[in-house]
Amino acid sequence: MKILDIKDLSIEFKSKAGMVHAVQNVNLWLNEGEILGVAGESGCGKTTTTLAIPRLLPKNAVITGGEILFNGEDLAAKSEKEMEAIRWKDIAVVFQGAMNALNPLKTIGNQMMEPILLHEEGVSKAEAEARVKELLEQVGIAGHRFNNYPHEFSGGMKQRVMIAMALVCRPKIIIADEPVTALDVMIQAQILELLKKLTKEYKLSMIMISHDLSVLSELCDRMAIMYAGRVVEFGDAKDVFKNPKHEYTDKLIHSLPDISGDRVFTGGIPGYPPSLIEPPAHCPFYDRCERRDDSCLGDFNFTEITPGHWTGCIHHR
Amino acid sequence: MFKLKYIGKKFIQMLITLFAIITFNFFLFRILPGDPVKLLARSGALSQESLDRIHALFGLDQPLGIQYLIYLKNMITGKYGISITYRTDVGTIIAERMGNTVALLALATVLIIVIGIGTGVIAAMRRGSTTDKVLLVASMTGWSLPTFWTGLLMIVVFGVTLNVLPVSGILTPGAVYTSTGAMLIDYLRHLIMPTIALIIVDMAEFFLITRSTLVDVMTEDFILTAKGKGLSEKKILWRHALPNSMLPIVTTLALYVSLVIGGAIQVETVFSFPGMGQLMYDAVLKRDYPILEASFFLFATVTLVANFISDILYMLIDPRVKEL
């Protein structure tokens, strides 16, 4: 069952050079209890798309079209006041770079209790504290560290605090924006394991953003690949990884060295993404694609080619 | 435990600095050219004998080292000596003048903090709006106005041309008051212009510091976290943004205390306001060592205490402030 359905979403940023079409006609959905991965290079619109769900975009961003349906209600049309009640209570975020995502002047305990006391009337401070301590233990941090300040934790611990904090109100959806990017590989593995465990335990639905395909293929049920503001491929994670239908997905996967395969120098993708101030109506990857021909110059058309597997490439293999 | 240790350490540092300052004060006036006794006996007809008597009376015949020790002892026991020009106890003279300056500075400080920080917060929250732009231009202008000049300008406009406010002193000379209320109103009317002249520059400074710090803090990641939690803009401001902007503001406050004293000297001179500033200004002209030493000592103490308090505030605001 779809818990979240993004339909035809477009987002633009005001800038001095003109409107930047950061997200164009994106279609995505999240099924209950699954983990959806969103991948793509920097600036492809993955963070913009996902942060638009709890409407946490900066002030110069405008949702110019489309719907974000959550429980049948369009979040894109809600007022700021209505969104305040939904944030963290229903949709929580594990922010990128936990280093600065915590307030340096408040104890982590206070910061974790804040959403509980804000959203749940009638919950006492003692109850909130007990819940927070339990969650801290769950992510492997001793409960007595409740009164410590952020600077007294390591980077990996802060990220675990962020994950525990995202769970305090038992949200329905968690958006994890590159939750492991700033961490070293060992800690990355721990955090991912923890996220997987918690989604099962709390029956969470999660959207996970990353530019690391190996991380996503291991963790996610389904996967969306974004390029220059568009979703170019969307489907079952294993399927997308093994059977990429869009040339960009294929190139992205092959830019990773294979540990068991031949020792080859991994190929890059020459060229640059198109300008998002005047984005093309056709496939955005056209300029860099090896398989392009004149048939690619028609309007970008995102279609289901095999059941549950969507792509915008007309040369799908 | 750590907190007490920190406070103790800062307190001892303050005492050491104070000692250095009073020592410096003593030698500063001895090095400065000019002999107070000669100034006093301007006629030149005074016999050498009388001059020696006056020297002995003020202890100026003793060797410098001994003078210094006597001076230290007197500072500690609160004896600031006899004024060379007024011929009375320095403590009494300062006590008379102190009240007026304290009233002026207290009023100025409250206004500066409330208006300066308040408008800073408003401008930061509405960054780029017309309100912000107007406040920004106004404070830039205010910041570049010299205190003595605004004082003189106000005297010309409000005191002379419009004739709505008294231009000097603290009470109307020769006035008979029907009640204490009437006297208080007269007192306040005399305070208006000096206060405004004094606060314009500092208010602008607090505005600019508050605004820029808050604008910076609002772009921090933890502000987005707070928004993500569902906090309203008001709650984000009070719980997360303002506390994180307090450190630079507290630093400015500590600096302000020493600067405002300089401002008070200018303002009191311009408005013939009978306070500490004017007393010091006159004492410099007349080489009145005891008054200068006592008022420098007083102002140094006030500045040091302000710094001490701001150190304690740092500790209370920011948990990262540790063994320094």
Can you describe what's shown?
The complex is a heterodimer of chains A (317) and B (324). Chain A has 317 residues and is α/β, with parallel strands linked by helices. Chain A has 10 helices and 12 strands. Chain A has an 8-stranded mixed β-sheet with strand order 6-7-8-3-9-10-12-11. In chain A, strands 2-1-4-5 form a 4-stranded antiparallel β-sheet. In chain A, a hairpin with a 2-residue loop joins strand 11 and strand 12. In chain A, helix 4 (108-119) crosses helix 5, helix 5 crosses helix 6 (155-167) and helix 6 (155-167) packs parallel to helix 7. Chain A starts with a strand and ends in a 6-residue tail after the last strand. The model of chain A has no long low-confidence stretch (mean pLDDT 89). With 324 residues, chain B is an all-alpha fold. Chain B has one domain: MetI-like fold (Orthogonal Bundle), CATH 1.10.3720. Helices cover 77% and strands 0% of the residues of chain B. Chain B has 12 helices and no strands. Chain B has helices at residues 2-31, 36-40, 48-57, 64-77, 90-125, 130-143, 147-161, 180-218, 221-228, 233-270, 276-285, 289-317. In chain B, 32% of the residues are buried. The model of chain B has no long low-confidence stretch (mean pLDDT 87). The chains are: A alpha/beta (317), B mainly alpha (324). Chains A and B meet through helix 2, helix 3 and helix 4 of A and helix 9 and helix 10 of B.
Task: Count interface residues per chain for the largest interface.
Answer: A-B, 27 and 21 residues
Number of domains of chain A: 2
Main sheet overview of chain B? none
Report the CATH superfamily of the largest domain in chain A.
Answer: P-loop containing nucleotide triphosphate hydrolases
CATH class of the largest domain in chain A: Alpha Beta
Taken together, the total number of domains of chain B comes to 1
Question: Order of helices and strands of chain A, N to C?
Answer: EEEHEEHEHHHHEHEHEEHHEE
Number of helices of chain A: 10
User: What is the CATH architecture assignment of the largest domain in chain A?
Assistant: 3-Layer(aba) Sandwich
pLDDT < 50 runs, ≥5 residues of chain B: none
The string of secondary-structure elements of chain B, in order, is HHHHHHHHHHHH
Q: What kind of assembly state do the chains in view correspond to?
A: heterodimer
Overall shape of chain A:
globular
**CATH class designation of chain B:** Mainly Alpha
Calculate Rg of chain A over CA atoms: 20 Å
If you compute it from the alpha carbons, what radius of gyration of chain B comes out, rounded to the nearest whole angstrom? Answer: 24 Å
* Largest sheet, strands/sense/barrel of chain A: 8 strands, mixed
